[in-house]
Amino acid sequence: QLQPVESGGGLVQPGGSLTLSCAASRFTKDYLSVGWFRQAPGKEREGVACIAPYGGIKTYTDSMKGRFTISKDNAKNTVYLQMNSLEPEDTGVYSCAAGNRATVTSIMCPGEDAYDYWGQGTQVTVSA
Questions:
Q1: Which of 48, 82, 110, 113 is the residue whose CA sits 20 to 30 A from 65?
Q2: For every residue of the chain, which 3-state class applies, written as one string?
């Protein structure tokens, strides 16, 4: 069973940056798309960004464009989410998910149901 593992969360001041990592042994071999999601306290989980199996297509939720960057290191089987200009509203648990039913297009990311494998999440807190 594939188990993505997130890391890199923490406490950061408003305006600061963090880079999250999501690692799994078979991202590339199993041709898996990967998505980042977040859940703020008291809110539903929302999509953040997604990336196609070999990193050729990257898509972002509109509110994240320009501040967040998703990337993938195929050799390390790791997907990164670089987050800049963080705001208190970005606080939440960030999770990555993977799946080969999750088709990433340049227009939109797959919904949660398209992903088969989920990490445990990493907490990001943006506060002064």
A1: 113
A2: CCCCEEECCEEECCCCCEEEEEECCCCCCCCCEEEEEEECCCCCCEEEEEECCCCCCEEECHHHCCCEEEEEECCCCEEEEEECCCCHHHCEEEEEEEECCCCCCCCCCCCHHHCCEECCCEEEEECC
Which candidate, 61, 69, 64, places its Cα nearest to that of 18? 69
Residue with tokens 């008291």: 42
Question: Tens place of pLDDT for every residue, the chain, 128 residues?
Answer: 789 999 999 999 999 999 999 999 888 778 899 999 999 999 999 999 999 998 889 999 888 889 999 999 999 999 999 999 999 999 999 999 999 898 999 889 999 999 999 999 999 999 99
Task: Judge residue 121's burial from the number of C-beta atoms within 10 Å of its C-beta, 0-12 exposed, 13-18 middle, 19 or more buried.
Answer: middle
Residue type, 13: Q
